[in-house]
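Module 6 notes. Inverse folding takes a fixed backbone as the condition and produces residue identities as the prediction. Think of it as a translation problem where the source language is geometry and the target language is the twenty amino acids. Below is one complete input and output pair. Work through it position by position during the lab.
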C-alpha cells in the first residue's frame, strides 16, 4: 500500500510538475497547467504564508471555495482586497451587507458572509496561535475539508486534505472503498506517507489537477499517467 500511495504521487508529480498551491493575491507566479485562474501561484516555493494577513487570506479562501471554483473565489478576494478587508478586525467592522456584496462572486454569499464574520472573531481570539483541529471543527461553517485546508496551507501543519476528487481517484485506483469516510481516506495518506507538509501540500494540488485533466467523471484513461497502477476497468 505504502509503495502505491508514493508511486501515485511520483507519477502525478512527473506529469504535472509542482503546482504552487495555495494561490495568494501577492504572488506573481502563474498556474503551471493554465487551468482555471492563472494568478497567484508559487510553484516549488512552500514558504507561504509569510505574514498574518496572508494566513488569513488562505483561511478566507478555504471558506469561500466551498461549493465553488477558485476563479470565483479569486474575484471575491480581489473585492475584499479593494476594501482592505483581508484582515480580521476589518472583517469584523465591515457592515454585513457590504461583506455580502464583496464576496457575491463566490456564491452562497449570505451564508459565507456569516461564516467569515464568525471565523474573523475566532482568528482574532487566536492572537497568532495555531488552532487545534478540534477547535476549528467547532466553528459553524468549518467542516473537515475546510479545517484541514486551513491547517495545511495556512499553518503548515501535516493534515492531508480530502475532497471529492481524492475519493474519486483513489476509489478508481483500488486503494480505498466507495464508502470510505473522510477519516478513513485521510488515514490512508497519514499512515502511508511521511508526515511532511511539502508532500501533503503538493499531493493534494496534484490530485485536483489530475481530476480536472484526466480522471473526470468520464475518465480519459488511455493517456493517464496512472493507467499502469489503476484498478479501474478502463475502456
Ligand atoms: S487510469 Fe483512468 S480511472 Fe485510473 S486514475 Fe487514470 S483516468 Fe482515473
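Target side of the pair, the amino acids:
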Amino acid at each position: 500500500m505504502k509503495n502505491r500511495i508514493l508511486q501515485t504521487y511520483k507519477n502525478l508529480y512527473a506529469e504535472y510538475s509542482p503546482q504552487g498551491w495555495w494561490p495568494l493575491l501577492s504572488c506573481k507566479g502563474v498556474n503551471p497547467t493554465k487551468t482555471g485562474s492563472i494568478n497567484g501561484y508559487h510553484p516549488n516555493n512552500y514558504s507561504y504564508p509569510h505574514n498574518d494577513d496572508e494566513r488569513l487570506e488562505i483561511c478566507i479562501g478555504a471558506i469561500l471555495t466551498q461549493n465553488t471554483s477558485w476563479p470565483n473565489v479569486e474575484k471575491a478576494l480581489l473585492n475584499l482586497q479593494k476594501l482592505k478587508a483581508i484582515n480580521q478586525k476589518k472583517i469584523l467592522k465591515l457592515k454585513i451587507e457590504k461583506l455580502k456584496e464583496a464576496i457575491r462572486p463566490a456564491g452562497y454569499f449570505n451564508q459565507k458572509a456569516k461564516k467569515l464574520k464568525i471565523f474573523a472573531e475566532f482568528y482574532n481570539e487566536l492572537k497568532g496561535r495555531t488552532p487545534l483541529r478540534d477547535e476549528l471543527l467547532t466553528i459553524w461553517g468549518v467542516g473537515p475539508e475546510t479545517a484541514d485546508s486551513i491547517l495545511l496551507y495556512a499553518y503548515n501543519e501535516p493534515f492531508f486534505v480530502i475532497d471529492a476528487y481524492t475519493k474519486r481517484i483513489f476509489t478508481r485506483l483500488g486503494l480505498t472503498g466507495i464508502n470510505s469516510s473522510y477519516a478513513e481516506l485521510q488515514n490512508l495518506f497519514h499512515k502511508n506517507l511521511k508526515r511532511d507538509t511539502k508532500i501533503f501540500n503538493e499531493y493534494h494540488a496534484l490530485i485536483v489537477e489530475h481530476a480536472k485533466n484526466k480522471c473526470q467523471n468520464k475518465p480519459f484513461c488511455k493517456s493517464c499517467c496512472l493507467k499502469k497502477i489503476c484498478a479501474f476497468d478502463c475502456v
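Reference fact for the lab report: Residues 169, 172-173, 214-215, 219-221, 224, 226-227, 230, 232, 234 surround iron/sulfur cluster (CB under 6 Å).
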